[in-house]
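Appendix C reproduces, verbatim, an entry submitted by the partner laboratory led by Prof. M.T., so that reviewers can inspect both the input and the predicted structure.
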Amino acid sequence: MTGARKAEMMLAQVYGFLSRFISFPSEYAHIAHALWCVHTHLMDKWESTPRIAFLSPEPASGKTRALEITELLVPKPVAAINVTPAYLFRKIGEEQGVTLLYDEIDTVFGPKARENEEIRGLLNAGHRKGAVAGRCVIRGKTIETEEIPAYAAVAMAGLGWLPDTIMSRSVVIRMRRRHNGEHVEPYRRRVHAVEGYQIRDALVAWAASAIINWPELPPAVQDRDADIWEPLLAVADAIGGEWPKRARQAALALLTESKEEDTSLGIRLLSDIRQIFGDETELATKTILDRIHDLPEAPWTDVKGKPLDDRGLASRLRPYRIKPKQIRIGTATPRGYCRTDFEQQWRSYLPPLPEKAKTSETIKTSGENGGAVLGVLPLAEKGDSVVTQLQCEHCHQDGNVIQCAYGDVEAWLHRDCIPGWKHAFDDLDIRNQPFYRTEP
């Protein structure tokens, strides 16, 4: 058997061992976890090491089990729960190649976690090779400075979310509870540890002679995303076979998922303002607030218990160097915002909008049991018998829906939702909305 084939079988063993005890949310998460475990055996090869974070909204979602299985496969595991910062610093500094497994990480970053500043600093800094933690030590009557190495692989598990400084350096796996149809093998350390250690020893032997080359990254993987995925893709390339292709698919899928979930309120505000601005060049502050308050599922009607007001809007836009000014709308001169002030930030922080769909000549029709909507042509109607399979594509609620066409775009809608759907199409671009369908 060739060395390349042995390497493929070794990674397949890691992959299979993980799947026996862990219910992953996706195949991509499964692939990323297997590659991450292998990368911990090659820490001297990397410029930076990605963290891996198993997070879930509720307990009993398999996070701790993921760390337990990981512990069997990585070098020098250190279970870090209820430990002092001094212990962690010394452990990482004195033992090269330590893998830190931090359960209940949410207690470190929670609102009442000020006493954990040193641990947060260690987790933030230790992803980069050569990173150190500076400390003052007292020797007799002399105070001296000391630099402790902080570079280490870290796997974390916790509830909720983590700060951006950690999330942006992590492969994030959103765990969930298993449903009745999902089954995993019951894990008992006394039974399964030996098998896990055998796989780990095979990884150690392979890593001792592995040749690692810097991988070619997909164009979409840039900046910090490249820091995260470069070691994992390098591992996949070194293994060969189908793993390079599978690893790159996992990278793109997980990065897309993280971008969809990891939008700050500031980015959300820029996106919503771009949506309500449409083609207008200036908008009064009151108009902006009224429009963003009306956006479905937007958070602006309840920001810390009250609707976003003009002062809050100005405060949230100030970091982007966007300020309100006196504008002229007709004969009125209210305070508001100019489109030109937003355009640079929209280009920097938001993906470009697709070109607007071409619309056919406007048709004015009136449907039975409903009023006329300019330009929207009712095609057919579906009753309660099919509502369970096809909901309104604008509000996503049940009820009688009617198939409508506007230009070359079609959707199933409640009659009452047709005006709002058309408005979204006119002011933004319906293809950028979740209810857009390319099929007829």
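Residues 53 and 156 are 5 Å apart (CA to CA). Additional entries are available on request from the coordinating office.
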